Automatic annotation (TrEMBL):
InterPro entries: GvpL/GvpF
Compartment annotation: Gas vesicle
Protein name: GvpL/GvpF family gas vesicle protein
Organism: Kitasatospora cathayae
Keyword Zinc: no
Pfam families the record matches: GvpL_GvpF
Keyword Membrane: no
Length: 272
């Protein structure tokens, strides 16, 4: 390591197999740096997936400044996830948090040694499983017919006509949310049959929204690989007969939402 670089850690895997080392050697990571595997000092497992990053961009103060730049953050996230997904296609990996940076390789080796049992237990728990994302949307506010299509009732005063229109709008919104609750219950039934763990994320709003409509459910499920097809098919039918709703199923992904280990940040350059 040079004084001008730090060590960026993407994920932890169980073993340094020739196939995994070869795949890692084909990858370009954050800041365009080559990706490699790092083994601990005292044992041979687990291994960390790492690359060098420039200190001028990843020391603590610079990193906090960059994380406020959405364009920089998006590029970082793409590189981080690209490495993890490429390796997850070959073996079980335990993703580390975005922007996990250590002062040097020795700190990473020490982290692997200190947390060996935690990592190996976590990898065993995730082995043979993938993450699927499920988002449920109310596609649009239902259009209240009294507000748009029906002619105003001449017997009503303007004030009473306004109140009637507002009540109709509220009823339409309540109907949409009741339908969404029913769809969510159907998704839960599929999850009980196929998933082994579940994580609820904040619904996406504003700049974080990735599609049209109002996101009302944003969940992740840990699913055995041989159940992915069945879970996806059943979940995609969750909105059958419920107009105005849409369900999206994404993945399979590396199990980001279920890599909950939090090793001590010994020698870390940053703790975002």
């Amino acid at each position: 390591m040079s004084d001008a670089s730090l060590t960026y850690a993407y994920a932890v895997a169980r073993d340094r197999t020739p196939a995994l080392a070869a795949e890692a050697g084909t990858l370009t990571g954050v800041a365009g740096a080559p990706v490699r595997l790092l083994t601990p000092d005292r044992t041979t497992t687990p291994v960390a997936v790492v690359s060098h990053v420039p200190a001028e961009d990843f020391h603590e103060a610079a990193l906090h400044r960059h994380l406020e730049d959405l364009g920089w953050l998006e590029a970082l996230a793409r590189a981080h996830h690209g490495v993890i997904e490429a390796l997850a296609a070959h073996t079980t990996v335990l993703p580390l948090r975005l922007a996990t940076v250590y002062l040097d390789d020795d700190r990473v080796r020490a982290m692997l040694d200190d947390n060996q049992k935690l990592f190996l237990d976590g990898l065993e728990r995730l082995r043979g499983h993938v993450e699927l994302g499920v988002k449920l949307y109310i596609e649009a506010e239902p259009r209240p017919p009294a507000a748009t299509d029906a002619p105003p009732d001449p017997a009503l005063s303007p004030g009473r006509a306004y109140l009637r229109r507002r009540r109709t709008e509220q009823d339409a919104r309540h109907d949409a949310h009741r339908a969404a609750e029913e769809a969510a219950q159907r998704i839960a039934v599929s999850a009980r049959a196929h998933a082994v763990q579940w994580a609820r994320h904040r619904v996406q709003e504003g700049e974080l929204a990735t599609g049209p409509g109002q996101n009302v459910v944003n969940d992740a499920y840990l699913v055995p690989a041989d159940h992915v097809r069945a879970f996806r098919e059943e979940t995609m039918h969750a909105t059958d007969g419920l107009p105005g709703l849409r369900v999206d199923v994404t993945g399979p992904w590396a199990p980001y939402s279920f890599a909950t280990l939090t090793p001590p940040e010994r020698g870390t350059a940053s703790a975002p």
